[in-house]
Amino acid sequence: MRTRPDEVDIDAALVGRLVAGRFPRRAGLPVERLRSSGTENAMFRLGPDPVVRLPRYPGAVEGVAHEQRWLPRLGPLLPLSRDAPTREAIAHLTGRIDTAAVADLWEEALGVPEHTGAPVCAHR
């Protein structure tokens, strides 16, 4: 469902073609749109673990560029690697927030079951 008039049509087939063109080793992995994609980015599960996130409209590209500029600068200052699984990263805030509730809400919003396997880096 479109949320803006300038929103780009992004579907699983397009994501599959983009992934195959940029990451040939991942070509052919199943692509499934996540139930909650937000208003700026569309998110798709790629195979069993990684997530592909694409800007939904031209103005959202700047937000991704902003993250790419700042994450390398902020990463060394954070108490946990940005590549840590979500539940592990949230758990690091124990005592400051209700970590179990936040992790459960996050996973419910994404429609993702709790990950029990080895740590996975979804963004490089």
Concise summary:
This protein has 124 residues and is an alpha+beta fold. It has 4 helices and 3 strands; from the N terminus they run αβββααα.
Task: Please name the defining characteristics of this protein.
globular; 11% strand; kinase activity; 124 residues; transferase; 4 helices
What does this structure look like?
This protein has 124 residues and is of the alpha+beta class. It has 2 domains: 1-77, no CATH class; 79-112, no CATH class. It has 4 helices and 3 strands. It has helices at 12-22, 61-74, 86-91, 99-110, and strands at 31-33, 41-46, 51-55. The protein has a 3-stranded antiparallel β-sheet, covered by helices on one side. The protein is globular and about 45 Å long. The model has no long low-confidence stretch (mean pLDDT 75).
- Shape assignment: globular
Distance between the termini: 29 Å
How many distinct beta strands?
Answer: 3
Radius of gyration: 16 Å
Alpha plus pi helix count? 4
Average pLDDT value?
75
Topology overview:
Layout: H1 12-22, E1 31-33, E2 41-46, E3 51-55, H2 61-74, H3 86-91, H4 99-110
